[in-house]
Amino acid sequence: MPQIELAGKTYEVDEDGFLQELDKWNKEFAQAYAKNEGIEGQLTEEHWKIINYLRDYFQKFGIAPMIRKLVKDNGIDMKRLYELFPTGPAKGACKLAGLSKPTGCV
Amino acid sequence: MTKENEKSQETDPKYPYRSEKLLPREQRVVRFLETLQEVLGAKIYNLPLETYLGTCAKCNNCAEQCQVYQTSRDQKDLPAWRSDLLRKVYKKYFTTSGKLFGKLVGAESLSEEDIDNMVDAFYRCNMCRRCGVNCPLAIDNALITRVGRVILAQLGFVPTNMTLSTRTQLGEIGNTSAIPKAAFIDTLDFLEEELRDETGIAIPIPRDVEGAEFFFAAPVSDYIMEADTLLGIAKTFYAAGASWTVSMENFDAINYGLFYSDADLEKVLNRLLEAANSLKCKTIVIGECGHSTKVALLFQKIYGRPEYHGMKVKNIIEVSHSFLKEGRLTFDPTKNPETVTYHDPCNLGRGSGLYEQPRELLKAAVMHFVEMTPNRQMNYCCGGGGGLVVVEDLHDWRMSAGGLKKVEQLRAIGAKLVCAPCANCKKQIRELVQAHKLDMEVVGLHDLLGKAIVLSGKA
Questions:
Q1: Across B246-386, where does the E strand assignment appear?
Q2: How far apart are CA A103 and CA B160, in angstroms?
Q3: pTM higher than the cut 0.90
Q4: How far apart are the C-alpha atoms of B347 and B135, rounded to whole Å?
Q5: Residues B206, B212, B215, CA angle at the centre, nearest 5°?
Q6: Is the ipTM of this complex over 0.95?
Q7: B379, B129 contact by CB (below 8 A)
């Protein structure tokens, strides 16, 4: 199992860099991982809103929400979502939120 | 991994994609030949394979047609060369002339290195079948690619995401994107809410309706990625006054078996047919997805259980088109003022013969429609065909050799919107648009129909 070292801690991730142990997630993980996903500097309040929303939804339903629902419930549009997470919602945002990798044509 | 496995794989080259578990290197040749023999013995493959593997004029017409070869100029991407990887093995072991005259008649023994070449080459083919259109001997190289992959799968070579997705689909969760039922319900509720907010009408997405005329199954990733496509489809059914349903047990049309395994294809297909049958629906409608339309159309009578043979299979585009022809749909094209072009998904066009229906729908629903060149039978694949779009390891290849011809085409047409009614093509073209900084957006066909559809008086 590949590992990734972020901010002095080691995490188990899958081969595409998705966190394997969902309960190991913490804010430091998200912040330290942000750079790998093309986000410079500190995560902003807007980022955290999305990350927390994704984690809440995932805890409730076991999967990320429909992207349309994500943007609607957070009062942003797709363009803004891609500005916040340049590698995209299914990859970047889910990775930082510590969600497992989506499969299929996603 | 066992020690034996590790040892045998020390001599393996670095493969372009990850597979779950490989057969030890020294066992591969034997297993390959055994599997080829089995495939040749299968009724559905015997005749076409003997025809396609028995001959090739080496005229290189296919080189001119293959968008991948035209970009890469790599021998591996030449359809005739790639198919020959399997052809020379077939001739050597399964034909009398090959056994007797060997290389003189294009027959050669199989080596582990030959298998390595196939592992690479068969997963650089989009199975788009463009090369078959002008082949003087009508050789279907995509079928040869498919058979090559089916054999390689028996040695363990299948991109991990394909096997993982299929296992999730055939397991408890029941769909390739691992959407649990509760999440699916939440998503349908959300979509109905969107429909209400947007139109002021309570347009339903009917669930588990016994005896509905149309049983609808989308590529399940649409329930994550493609809200507008699904909203458009719900509006279309509503406007036409048709009865339809989704199944809460099986709402995924995707069938990756097409790309590597007849056994998995058969299981996934029968799950779908069974879901429709249990709701007593007689027509299965596949959403905006090329490969699963082709699977259902082509293999229903071959692998579907006999009790399901009476069902009809249609793509949503055919259904919407028949609604249009019957005068059941009215559009206001001013709602789609942008210039729109149409990408023919290979499995809907060359695979299922749907060329004019989507165009007639578009012309009714948008203001400015422009045609890319070439199109229809000669259209270029998006570069993510043959299931390659789900193989993350091949991303860079898809953005270059795989998809450059499509990029050139899109850039030349300069439309604001490219309509690609296939989940596979949507994902690939969106990635191309981003990677190559094209100023355009990718949409589904029903996204546009949904915007322009006139619903007044139906409330």
A1: 283-286, 312-315, 339-342, 368-370
A2: 10
A3: yes
A4: 19
A5: 75
A6: no
A7: no
Q: Is the minimum CB–CB distance between B433 and chain A shorter than 8 Å?
A: no
User: Within chain A, what is the greatest distance between any pair of CA atoms?
Assistant: 38
Cβ-based burial of B63 (10 A; exposed 0-12, middle 13-18, buried ≥19): middle
Of B304, B325, B346, the domain-final residue? B325
**Does one domain contain both B221 and B128?**
no
> Between chains, do A61 and B161 touch, taking CB under 8 Å as contact?
no
Q: Which residues pair with B342 in a beta bridge?
A: B419
Check residue B452 and report its DSSP letter. H
* DSSP SS3 for B365: helix
Residue of B nearest to A62 (CA): B180
Nearest to B176 among A62, A65, A104 (CB): A104
- Beginning with the edge strand found earlier in the chain, give each strand of the sheet holding B244-245 in spatial order: B244-245, B214-217, B283-286, B312-315
Indicate which residue of A57, A102, A105, A106 is catalytic: A105
In angstroms, rounded to a whole number, what is the distance separating the alpha carbons of residues B416 and B439?
7
C-alpha span between B373 and B354 (Å, rounded): 17
Superfamily of segment(s) A3-96: DsrC protein, C-terminal domain (1.10.10.370)
Q: Using 50, 70 and 90 to split pLDDT, how confident is the model at A106?
A: confident
pLDDT at B222: 97
Total residue count of chain A as it appears in this document? 106
Handedness of CA B403, B404, B409, B411 (dihedral sign): positive
Domain extent, residue B383, equals 333-452
CATH number at residue B42: 1.10.1060
Closest CA to B348 of B137, B129, B44, B176: B129
